[in-house]
Design goal:
Layout lengths: L10 E6 L6 H13 L9 E5 L13 H8 L3 E3 L4 H17 L4 E6 L3 H7 L10 E5 L2 H5 L3 H10 L1 E4 L14 E2 L5 H6 L4 H14 L8 H4 L3 E2 L4 H7 L7 H8 L4
Parallel strand pairs: 1-2, 1-4, 2-3, 4-5, 5-6
Antiparallel strand pairs: 7-8
């Protein structure tokens, strides 16, 4: 077992809304960093771009970032929502039929997940574990979708990764000193460079201007779901994440 995840049987789905905040851009980089680490290379996963709900604001396209972070293991719900939902449902069905569990790191709203779960037989739905850390994300999920995931799946509510002192890793900081190690890392530096480029481009004009990013810091708070699933939820924050996954030489 890797945390709660059984690499012999389970599937990780990492969903990102990418609307309207740039935090998802950095969360994608963080997830790619974890999943490219040798300790987690056995994790079977698929990521979703554009898994947004009912919120307003501009969608932030980041295809190259997803390519760098996840290779060809990602789906584009912004461009093909119905096809993405069908593909996720099929991955879920195959995993559960084989005796595994599905773990959804919900870095956004649950509308896409709910639609995929709705395509499963009822006796499979409790094998889908949804992990959510944000009341805002829940508030921007349609009522029908929230009812689907809360009452039909196994729903895990963890502490908000934007804040320290609540038991979460708090992957949000105004401190920009960690950027140098991330950008210089020989394995994942390219991912972080693209995430920073996109963050700096979109944050000043986004509907929600992320204060940590505006201050030159980092916000990959939507990675606490993956931390919970894969067993590093006890990290204290950004500094420990960087020291573990992108240590300066």
């Amino acid at each position: 077992m890797i945390g709660l995840f059984d690499p012999a049987n389970d599937l990780l789905i990492a969903n990102y809304d990418s609307k309207p905040d740039v935090d998802d851009l950095q969360a994608v980089a963080a997830a790619g960093t974890v999943l490219q680490d040798p300790a987690y290379s056995c994790v079977d996963f698929v990521a979703t771009h554009g898994a947004y709900g009912i919120q307003t604001g501009e969608f932030l396209p980041a295809a190259e970032l997803f390519n760098l972070a996840f290779g060809d293991k990602w789906l584009d719900a912004h461009e093909d929502r119905e096809g993405t939902i069908a593909a996720l449902a099929e991955r879920m069905r195959t995993t559960i039929s084989g005796g595994g569990k599905v773990w959804v790191a919900e870095a956004g709203q649950s509308d896409v997940t709910a639609a995929a779960v709705g395509m499963l037989p009822e006796d499979m739905r409790r094998s889908v574990n949804i992990v959510q850390h944000s009341y805002w994300n829940e508030s921007q999920t349609s009522e029908d979708a929230m009812n689907m995931v809360v009452y039909n799946t196994t729903y895990h509510r963890v502490q908000d990764g934007n804040f320290a002192g609540n038991g979460s890793p708090a992957f949000n900081t105004d401190d920009g000193s960690h950027w140098s190690a991330l950008l210089a890392d020989p394995d994942v530096g390219l991912i972080w460079r693209e995430a920073k480029r996109l963050s700096d481009l979109h944050n000043p004009v986004a509907e929600y201007v992320n204060p940590a990013v505006a201050a030159g810091g980092l916000d990959f708070s939507d990675t606490v779901e993956i931390a919970y699933i894969l067993g590093f939820y006890d990290m204290k924050g950004v500094g420990e994440f960087v020291a573990r996954f992108a240590p300066a030489e």
